[in-house]
């Protein structure tokens, strides 16, 4: 109790002399949590990936080496998986932006119940578990499922559709999952455009394509960059859709991480693949944002 | 414009379709997934209540999300104040760092925590799961509260101070009312994030300790898929719509989800 009083009086004394101490104390819980359960585990993950074999009771600390990375780089099986991941990520990003940009533009031009309806539809997947929407797509895309029945009744197709377990189906579901995030960023980006700039351009005789190319597109570039970075990193690292819709036919990095990490229990290999995924995502999003910043000549973009 | 309008409504239909299709599928009276449903019955909605594993996972997910949301707000609020109000070097570095966990693939974090928890004895525990959820909910709570703190009127606090209120009174009577909407938004947001999280729970929850999304995933992926899954899915979709409307009516979805003013 005496020591508690001592600490208390010391703290009171310190905070009276330096208000900064209070600030520092308020930051401690979050910083400690992030060091203990974010930074340290990631360092340990890298450490784990350099082990030559799975730690066991007989051999708790096997020797370290970077051999696994050279093995991964030389193995066409893993290179193919990495390429698949990138392809899925890029295709999803393109499809998501192509759909979200017009939708976001439309949302900023309307108000009232129509705006609420479209917002609910486009943002709802954030509020509902991703498993629910994947289940919905699964039911829609099943052979002899809903889409099949509609197309058959229109006489467009005959025989069972094999859409499930294909690359387009996987990209479609991933696009669905990520449209809300892109719409969210793009709406706030499009809303920030001052209307008088558009009106001024219109008064000066600019047509719709010219207004779009010279005013709207450059001003929303930061939003486009931010949303593509977010969608790319989320899509490249998602594995629920690949496992449930792709049914493991399209092998991507997160699938391998999951199966080596939890089913086959080869932690060093899973850790190495996770490090590869991490480096890939961070490197691509970073270079992309850097290159686009230079292109658009503005240093301000913000990740949501 | 008319072309754009048609395009937008096609997208709206496609966005709602997967969530709403679960309803007719769940109305079936047989125990396999089919469309159109065979017969009409509410038996699978009733079956949710008698499915003990499912109910247990709902309860677990609920408490997990409550714990993660409350703790995230309690620790993130002081941080938001210090970083928004403070004038010290490294503010931007700290801001980037606290929001950092959003930037890395969650599956990488999940694997890292799985290996780490194994060495420190938190593996397959509820507290480990709460900690893991905190790592991903704190950045979002922090961002939302940062916006909220930035929009507060500092002059009101000065006035309160001058008029002789104690710091506690100032906080409760002057600052808390201004923070109310921000706190509600941060709570709903982090709750949803945690309640819906699959990745972390899939790696970290032990056998017999599944959260609702993991339970649904396991039944879809491994075995035990009955129309009870579409039934609970539709209930979740309805809850999502209600949450959305509450958040939109109280604070405005765009303002707070985008995490800026």
Any chance you could write out the topology, listing elements then pairs?
The complex is a heterodimer of chains A (304) and B (261).
Chain A lengths: L1 H16 L1 H31 L17 H8 L1 H33 L3 H16 L2 H12 L4 H8 L13 H25 L3 H9 L4 H29 L3 H5 L8 H11 L3 H30 L8
Chain B lengths: L1 H19 L1 H5 L16 H8 L1 H34 L5 H8 L7 H15 L5 H25 L3 H9 L4 H29 L3 H6 L7 H10 L6 H23 L2 H5 L4
Describe this structure in a few short sentences:
Chain A is built from 13 helices and no strands. Chain A has 304 residues and is mainly alpha-helical. The longest helix of chain A has 33 residues.
Structure description:
The complex is a heterodimer of chains A (304) and B (261). By secondary structure, chain A is mostly helical. Chain A is built from 13 helices and no strands. The C terminus of chain A is likely disordered. Chain B is mainly α and 261 residues long. Chain B has one domain: MetI-like (MetI-like fold). Chain B starts with a helix and ends with a helix. At the A-B interface, α2, α4, α5, α6 and α8 of A face α1, α4, α5, α6 and α7 of B.
The chain-level mean pLDDT of chain B equals: 84
Going by CATH, the homologous superfamily of chain A would be MetI-like
Regions of chain A with pLDDT < 50 over 5+ consecutive residues? 298-304
Please name the two chains that share the biggest interface, counting residues whose Cβ lies under 8 Å from a Cβ on the partner chain: A-B, 83 and 83 residues
Assembly level? heterodimer
Number of domains of chain A: 1
SSE sequence of chain A, one letter per element: HHHHHHHHHHHHH
Q: Secondary-structure element order of chain B, as H and E?
A: HHHHHHHHHHHHH
Per CATH, the class of chain A reads Mainly Alpha
